[in-house]
Amino acid sequence: MNIALWIAAGMLAAVALAGGFTKSFLPVEKLAAAHGGEWTGDAAPAFVRTLGVLEILAAIGLVLPALTGIAPVLVPVTAVCWVGLMIGAMITHLRYAGGARFAGLNLIYLVIAVFVAWGRFGIAPFAG
């Protein structure tokens, strides 16, 4: 179970890091032109950048506390926060044509985050 939870957290961290860097550093016009990124054209650039920073922080929070042994409880806490972010992402994507596919992907990420939170809060917490 520990290995499965590490894989799940690592996968979510990779997704969060990729999305975070994209939202933080690509021009908003380029994001808005990409399939699935149409919503960024209607959002304030500062909001898009803030989401990017939050995703980078989520990537860090999903693995670094466990790797360092410093406050590993932050891993499941971050996973719970990721659930909230994915709910918002699903709602946002569903507002745009073709967004159901991306909302479905967000649902998969949400389920994985629930698995990480459930596993790390309950059945396989990090030994302290």
Task: Describe this entry's structure for a reader.
This protein is mainly α and 128 residues long. 78% of the residues lie in helices and 0% in strands. α1 (2-25) packs across α5 (99-123) and α3 (45-68) packs antiparallel against α4 (74-94). The radius of gyration is 15 Å and the shape is elongated. The mean pLDDT is 94.
Strand content: under 5%
Class computed from helices, strands and strand pairing: mainly alpha
Number of helices: 5
Low-confidence stretches: none
Over the alpha carbons, how many angstroms does the gyration radius reach?
15 Å
Report helical residue fraction. Answer: over 70%
Mean pLDDT: 94
Characterize the largest beta sheet: strand count, sense, and whether it forms a barrel. none
**How many strands appear in the DSSP assignment?**
0
Our measurement of the CA-to-CA distance between the termini, rounded to an integer number of angstroms, reads 17 Å
Reading the helices and strands in chain order gives: HHHHH
**Bulk shape:** elongated
